[in-house]
Write a structure and sequence with these properties.
single chain, mainly alpha, five-stranded mixed β-sheet, 32 helices, 7 strands, 75% helix, 6% strand, elongated
């Protein structure tokens, strides 16, 4: 009964389980989906990308999100968000930890963001971007100094204290290696400025940066003091995010932060509490805490936390985290010398197939270590060689020292002395000069000591073993203390120095007790057995649930089949009864449909004929409106032709007289004048010819062929023709014409007579509404019609041509705005319009692949917008 109850509880928990979700990502996506504010939406996209990119494994996803945010910000003309998006993209491409980093692209993006910030006078953003650019790896030292100086100068000029502090920090970090004294001065200046300005957040950032520098220079006491000061200020000022960062450093035993064993649990609990408040993920914290527990030989606690993190990752179906934690559990079993279990977990991690390149690599390294300890040298060599190749693919030539020291120790046991010494030396240099990972530093020094012991160089054994022992004791790394003290003990035994040998043997004994005491081993085994039992219970519960589910499916299947058979029988029976009736009814309906079809075809033919006549009528109506304007336009060149013809007759008489008197020079000059007059006659004759051709082209049916056309000239010509046409009909009509043409457009491919009809229709309507409004005798009103052209390049590519016809008439009432493009709809009095003008215009623009839109404000005017896409 009790066993049945236990299985039911497990089954219930399994049934109601839902996959854990990333709360922050879901919250941001909810804001994006629900907000109507473009600025908030764009900022939310950027926040989502930052959250995704906080794990370098998801930078590709973050870049996709940022590209979407950039397109949205540009579309909505949100300059601040556009700059911030470009800045984040530049930061990701400039990050050395990103596998697909591209320093040149990162630098180019940051320069683009700086140019935008300068264009819109966004000084704070410009300062931040200058500082960011100085951190890109490919920037030359002289350029870095110039960028820092420029950023600092602007911060002081515009009294931006926080930016000044950030720039001073960047300057201090730059001079840490070049001039340490100068770096200290810059750190001190930044710290003093943050305190004077009462900026606790900046003060914490400065103290933390100083602590990192001291830690990298192996000055742990100073580093510890500064971190504790920063932690105190962060707590006092409720700076939760800064406190989380500091606590993470305190928990880590393998980073640049310090470590206090007694404070490990409180720091971990406090950090967990803050992460929950911030709605942030705690999986990486759990992993760091478990690793710290492992380093201080609290193996049971480490195993317990690793398994908790593994369960959470599996609920999330986070393959990369599962791979990481499986590898760490495998590494933990190596520490307790259970190499077979270590191989099992590492092999399972490898099956996830490089979801995390770093842990995919270390799973292979841990396999090599386990196989060499089990004296399966062929397998060990295979995994060691593959590990090195994976490391080269991941790091290039600057391979991480933790890889090198482990492979060095493997090759030492494999007897490959050349590779062993090479890898161990490179690892030692890495952790001495580049990083301050104390755990791996111990591994490197003890690895070298082990190699030199095998090579028979006792003095080197003593040197490196003592280096490793000193660091291991300072950080309470019991495993490294045991290994190093054992090597030193053997050295002094060989030198017959009994006192020293006994001293280090005692150190070894104490460390060994910590590593392998019975209580710790028992707890470790209990946790492991409990985990195995839990997995067995879940498997059994799943099996029982699956059996029950399968039984229910079979029962429900049989019931469903019976019900379906009954329903089908009833339906078939009813269908058979109705079949004959339906057949007769369908036959009668078909006859009626055939009759209606023939009537409809006749109606459609008549409608098409009527429609063609109406369209031709509309075209002729527009031609009629043009006639007076064309007449006016033709009259001007004809006047010139007549005047210059009469003038030439007079000049010819004068030339004859001069020829009679023999004055050839004067006759020649008169002949030149005649020639000039003839040229002018020819010019104005061609002008009249062009006007007539344009009229003919407007009147004839379109051939449907697009040809290169100067849209500016077309619009200008129809504007003048329409104006003079209306003036001819109504002598009192008067209006101001304005044009603003984009000369860069050039010729575009359109059907000129069709597009001319559209422009003429829109201009004629505009003149009509301003004339109607002018009849109201409104004081100060000046009827004005404006036509403009412009060219732009949309993000989708190609070129967009915009033609706008604007008027300051009475506007279009909202209640009829949706009807203006409908055929036969008109607001003009009966007999003055067919209602086809705008409808035909709309269809013509659509046929050109464009769009005809309207913007209006009742009482103030209307703008018709033609938008055409060109290749």
């Amino acid at each position: 009964m009790r066993e049945t109850f236990r299985i039911c509880i497990i089954l219930l928990l399994f049934t109601i389980h839902v996959n854990a979700q990333d709360f922050l990502s879901d919250s941001i996506r909810t804001v994006i989906a629900k907000t109507n504010n473009d600025s908030i939406k764009a900022s939310s996209f950027i926040a989502l990308a930052r959250h995704q990119g906080s794990d370098l494994r998801n930078v590709d996803i973050a870049i996709v999100t940022l590209n979407n945010a950039l397109a949205f910000a540009r579309q909505k003309m949100l300059v601040n968000q556009e700059i911030e998006t470009i800045r984040n993209l530049g930061g990701y491409y400039s990050a050395p930890g990103y596998a697909k980093h591209d320093f040149a692209k990162g630098r180019a993006l940051l320069l683009q963001a700086i140019a935008l910030a300068r264009k819109f006078s966004l000084k704070e953003k410009e300062i931040d971007l200058l500082t960011d650019l100085s951190m890109v790896s490919s920037v030359k030292p002289d350029s870095i100094k110039l960028l820092i100086a420029q950023s600092l100068s602007m911060s002081i000029q515009y009294q931006l204290v926080e930016k000044q502090i950030r720039t001073l920090l960047r300057k201090a970090n730059y001079y840490v290696i070049l001039k340490s004294d100068s770096a200290r001065l810059f750190f001190a200046e930044a710290l003093s400025l943050s305190r004077q300005s009462s900026l606790p957040k900046s003060e914490v950032d400065v103290l933390q940066a100083m602590a990192v520098v001291y830690s990298n220079n192996h000055k742990s006491d100073s580093s510890n003091y500064l971190r504790l000061q920063a932690l105190k200020i962060a707590r006092e000022n409720n700076l939760a995010r800064q406190e989380v960062t500091l606590l993470r450093g305190c928990i880590s035993t393998r980073g640049t932060a310090f470590f206090i064993k007694d404070s490990l649990d409180p720091y971990y609990e406090r950090c967990l509490f803050l992460l929950r408040q911030l709605h942030e993920d705690s999986l990486s914290l759990m992993s760091s805490f478990a690793t710290a527990c492992m380093d201080i030989v609290n193996y049971p606690k480490a195993l317990q936390v690793y398994f908790s993190a593994l369960h959470a990752s599996k609920e999330r179906k986070d393959s990369a985290n599962i791979e990481e934690i499986l590898d760490k559990i495998g590494n933990l079993f190596q520490a307790v010398k259970d190499y077979k279990k270590s191989i099992a977990y590492c092999r399972e991690a490898i099956t996830y197939g490089s979801k995390s390149q770093f842990y995919f690599l270390f799973s292979h390294i841990d396999m090599a270590v386990a196989f060499v300890e089990l004296e399966q040298k062929d397998s060990a060599r295979y995994f060691a060689d593959k590990s090195y190749n994976l490391a080269k693919d991941l790091y290039g030539e600057n391979i991480y020292g933790g890889v090198l020291n482990t492979l060095g120790r493997v090759y030492t046991k494999l007897g490959d002395d050349n590779k062993a010494l090479d890898y161990l030396r490179r690892s030692y240099v890495y952790f001495t000069k580049i990083a301050s990972d104390y755990n791996n530093y111990c591994e490197s020094t003890i690895g070298l000591a082990t190699y030199f012991k095998k090579a028979g160089i006792p003095d080197s054994v003593l040197l490196y073993a003592k280096l490793g022992l000193r660091t291991a004791q300072a950080n309470d790394f019991s495993g490294s203390v045991s290994e190093a003290s054992n090597l030193i003990t053997e050295y002094y035994q060989n030198k017959h120095n009994a006192d020293s040998a006994l001293f280090y043997q005692q150190i070894n004994f104490e460390a060994y007790k910590k590593l392998y005491n019975d209580e710790s081993s028992r707890q470790f085994q209990n946790f492991f057995f409990a985990e195995q039992q839990r997995e067995a219970d879940i498997a059994e519960a799943k099996r029982i649930a699956a059996d029950q589910y399968a039984g229910k499916l079979r029962l429900y299947g049989m019931i469903t089949i019976v019900i379906v058979a009954l329903v089908i029988g009833i339906i078939v029976f009813r269908n058979n009864i109705k079949k004959q009736k339906s057949f007769d009814l369908l036959k009668k309906q078909k006859q009626e449909i055939d009759l209606q079809k023939s009537k409809l075809e006749v109606s459609i033919t008549e409608l098409q004929t009527t429609q063609s006549q109406l369209i031709q009528s509309e075209k002729m109506a527009s031609l009629g409106e043009l006639t007076a304007g064309i007449a006016h336009e033709i009259q001007n060149p004809l006047n010139f032709v007549n005047n210059f013809s009469e003038l030439n007759n007079e000049l010819i008489e004068e030339m004859k007289a001069e020829l009679v008197t023999g004055n050839l020079q004067q006759a020649t000059e008169i002949a030149d004048d005649i020639k000039q007059n003839l040229e002018k006659i020819n010019h104005h004759g061609k002008r009249a010819d062009a006007i007539v051709k344009g009229m003919l082209q407007h009147s004839r049916s379109s051939n449907g062929v697009k040809e290169p056309t100067d849209i500016n000239a077309l619009a200008d010509e129809y504007l003048r023709l329409a104006y003079h046409g209306l003036r001819a009909k109504d002598k009192l009509f008067n209006a101001t014409m304005k044009t603003d043409f984009d000369e860069s457009i050039g010729n575009i491919n359109i059907i000129p007579q069709d597009m001319g009809r559209v422009i003429l229709n829109l201009i004629t309507n505009a003149f009509y509404v301003v004339n109607e409004k002018s009849k109201q005798n409104i004081a100060g009103y000046e009827p004005t019609v404006t036509i403009t052209t412009a060219s732009s390049q949309p993000p989708s590519g190609g070129r967009s041509i915009i033609i706008k016809v604007s008027d300051n008439g009475g506007g279009i009432p909202q209640k009829i705005l949706d009807k203006i493009f409908q055929p036969f709809f008109t607001t003009k009095p009966t007999g003055q319009g067919t209602g086809l003008g705008l409808s035909l215009s709309y269809d013509i623009v659509k046929a050109h692949g464009g769009e005809l839109k309207v913007e209006t404000k009742e009482g103030e005017g209307t703008i018709f917008i033609i938008q055409l896409q060109t290749a």
